[in-house]
């Protein structure tokens, strides 16, 4: 059956069936599927400017994943344009779903559960993934679960071979978040520290903008820093504070002052500023991670989110944990930023442990959603 046809069927079925018969139909098929000891889960990510789709099998692991990034489309505007993002998700989501099914050599009917990013994110963009996920799930008679985007990021390192066991300390450093958490299991997240202002990724992006690099500037700034050397001195806000919080906006302002002091912003100067900025962020993140491990007496650190792709940060964390007999894990580079695999995985973990329940297949998105509200599925 073609996916477009399935979606059409889903919508027309919704009009024909009354709620009660839908409830009965869903309950019986859901129960039947939960009785199986493994599950094939389709994951759909559409919270911002990347459409990600993946198939995760609870027994055989990740079978396929595909991603379309909208960066080129938004670059001309210097940031994400929400309406353009939603429209592009509509164009991409179904072809990407067809692509992962083909890659994994699976049919649509083989899908036993669907996970989608329910929030936080852009409302219109979230609605695209949600409506496709819920419609497909209703047409196939399979359970559907909304995943918290940050839970997806947090659990992404568990997709790798030899995944770290619970409990561990997680450093989530993305475009919108800089948090340290104690993770005791799925849905058992305790916030240890947070940013008081900008996120680490945001600081990379804003500093890159000051240096005239494109959007998003984080990776370009990191690349520039590779050729830089120690020449300037930037502050390390909250480096020695007794808590586990971060603050990055002062660092960005210090870069602005430094840039304004330069008579010319030649390439060498830009490289040296980028080098010092990256060192400052790395110093802060490394020190706070070590402090969190010490405070919690845990031995494992897990890093996720886009800034987790930063080579210098990985180098420092690898070194500092190794000399202390601690371990550190990361997702593969492509799963640091938004992707469908992390949503399929987090959804599979939740579906696997959830009691059979009836879904009303409503299009319920949560553009603002505190991770602390999440509960363990058990
Ligand atoms: N190599 C790198 N070095 C530093 N920063 C990087 C690197 N690669 C990506 N980033 C930054 O990571 C961020 C994107 O990460 P991610 O996709 O996890 O964030 P997001 O999804 O936008 O935010 P959130 O998940 O908090 O809503 C951007 O700010 C980008 O500049
Ligand atoms: Mg993200």
What does this structure look like?
With about 375 residues, this protein is α/β, with parallel strands linked by helices. It has 2 domains: about 5-155 and about 335-375, 2-Layer Sandwich (Nucleotidyltransferase, domain 5), CATH 3.30.420.40; about 165-330, ATPase, nucleotide binding domain (Nucleotidyltransferase, domain 5, 2-Layer Sandwich). It is about 45% helix and about 15% strand. It is built from 12 helices and 10 strands. The chain has helices spanning about 5-15, 20-35, 70-75, 80-105, 125-140, 150-155, 200-210, 220-225, 250-260, 265-295, 310-320, 340-355, and strands at about 40-45, 50-55, 60-70, 115-120, 145-150, 170-175, 180-185, 190-195, 300-305, 325-330. A 5-stranded mixed sheet has the order 3-2-1-4-5, sandwiched between helices. The chain has a 5-stranded mixed sheet with strand order 8-7-6-9-10, sandwiched between helices. Strand 6 and strand 7 (about 180-185) form a beta hairpin. Helix 4 packs parallel to helix 5 and helix 7 (about 200-210) runs parallel beside helix 9. The longest helix is centred in the C-terminal third of the chain and has 30 residues, at about 265-295. The protein binds adenosine-5'-triphosphate (ATP) and magnesium ion. Adenosine-5'-triphosphate binds near residues 48, 153, 175, 306 and 310.
């Amino acid at each position: 059956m073609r996916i477009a046809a399935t979606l059409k069927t889903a919508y027309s079925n919704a009009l024909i069936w009354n709620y009660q018969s839908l409830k009965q139909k869903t309950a019986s098929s859901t129960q039947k599927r939960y009785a199986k000891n493994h599950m094939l889960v389709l994951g759909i990510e559409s919270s911002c400017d990347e459409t990600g789709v993946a198939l995760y099998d609870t027994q055989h692991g990740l079978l396929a994943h595909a991603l379309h990034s909208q960066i080129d489309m938004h670059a001309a505007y210097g940031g994400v344009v929400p309406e353009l993002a939603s429209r592009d998700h509509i164009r991409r989501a179904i072809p990407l779903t067809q692509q992962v099914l083909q890659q994994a050599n699976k049919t649509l009917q083989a899908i036993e559960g669907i996970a989608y990013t329910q929030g936080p994110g852009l409302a219109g963009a979230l609605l695209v993934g949600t409506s496709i996920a819920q419609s497909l799930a209703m047409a196939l008679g399979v359970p559907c679960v909304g995943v918290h985007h940050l839970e997806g990021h947090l659990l992404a390192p568990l997709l790798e071979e030899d995944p770290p066991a619970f409990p561990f300390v997680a450093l989530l450093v993305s475009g919108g978040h800089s948090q340290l958490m104690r993770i005791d299991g799925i849905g058992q997240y305790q916030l240890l520290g947070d940013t008081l202002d900008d996120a680490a990724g945001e600081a990379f992006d804003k500093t890159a903008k000051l240096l005239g690099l494109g959007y998003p500037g984080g990776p370009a700034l990191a690349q520039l820093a590779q050729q830089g050397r120690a020449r300037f001195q930037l502050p390390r806000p909250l480096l020695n504070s007794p808590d586990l919080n971060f603050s990055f906006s002062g660092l960005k302002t210090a870069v602005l002052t430094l840039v304004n002091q330069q008579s010319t912003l030649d390439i060498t100067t830009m490289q040296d500023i980028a080098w010092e900025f990256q060192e400052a962020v790395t110093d802060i993140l490394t020190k706070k991670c070590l402090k969190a491990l010490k405070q919690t007496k845990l031995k494992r650190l897990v890093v996720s989110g886009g800034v987790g792709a930063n080579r210098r940060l990985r180098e420092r964390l690898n070194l500092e944990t190794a000399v202390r007999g601690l371990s550190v894990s990361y997702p593969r580079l492509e799963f640091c930023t938004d992707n469908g695999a992390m949503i399929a995985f987090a959804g599979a973990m939740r579906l696997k442990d959830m009691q059979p329940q009836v879904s009303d297949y409503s299009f319920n998105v949560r553009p603002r959603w505190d991770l602390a509200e999440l509960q363990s599925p058990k």
